[in-house]
Design brief:
3 helices, single chain, two-stranded antiparallel sheet, 2 strands, mainly alpha
Amino acid sequence: MRLLELKNYYRYSGYWYPLLADKQDHVFKPGATFETAWQMYMFDRDIRQLVVNEMEEVEVGED
């Protein structure tokens, strides 16, 4: 898992937790994968960046 070497395990665990059928043994639901969780993380990151950029526009009053 090269991704876990680049980022913190706990940063991603919140994204794959809803995809788990068995949360005790970390078994994914049918059709759900670590890749699915990674895509959710990337989507969330992109949305977060957009929101932060827009907040800066509001704070400094730029159009």
